[in-house]
Write a structure and sequence with these properties.
This protein is mainly beta. It has no helices and 11 strands. Strands 2, 4, 5, 6, 9, 10 and 11 form a 7-stranded mixed sheet that branches. It has a 4-stranded antiparallel sheet with strand order 1-3-8-7, with no helix packed on it. The radius of gyration is 14 Å and the shape is elongated.
Length: 119
């Protein structure tokens, strides 16, 4: 069973930076896509950024130029570097990992980590 553990959330002032990490554990053959989503109170969960195992990244328009997603395939870990944070980035951030490998397909989520941007 694949599990995801997130870390790195917290309280930061507007304009500040945070780095989120998400490590996948368990018997893993391959993770095709890892991504970060966020959900604010009363809103739907939305994609922030995703990255394939080949390193191709995709970003929401609202975070382009401020956030950078990266991953370490050897460690099954994905990172989200968040710079120039704004109050509207306040949300619970969730990690997601997907594999389409025929022998071990999965689509799993982390427990979420709170990011609060406030002065």
């Amino acid at each position: 069973q694949v599990q995801l553990v997130e870390s790195g959330g917290g309280l930061v002032q507007p304009g500040g930076s945070l780095r989120l990490s998400c490590a996948a554990s368990g018997s893993i053959f391959r993770i095709d896509v890892m991504g970060w989503y966020r959900q604010a109170p009363g809103k739907q969960r939305e994609l922030v950024a995703s990255i394939t195992n080949g390193g191709s990244a995709n970003y929401a328009d609202s975070v382009k130029g401020r956030f950078t997603i990266s991953r370490d395939n050897a460690k099954n870990t994905v990172y989200l570097q968040m710079n120039s944070l704004k109050s509207e980035d306040t949300s619970v951030y969730y990690c997601n990992a997907v594999s389409w490998f025929i022998m071990q397909s999965f689509d799993v989520w982390g427990q979420g980590t709170q990011v609060t941007v406030s002065s």
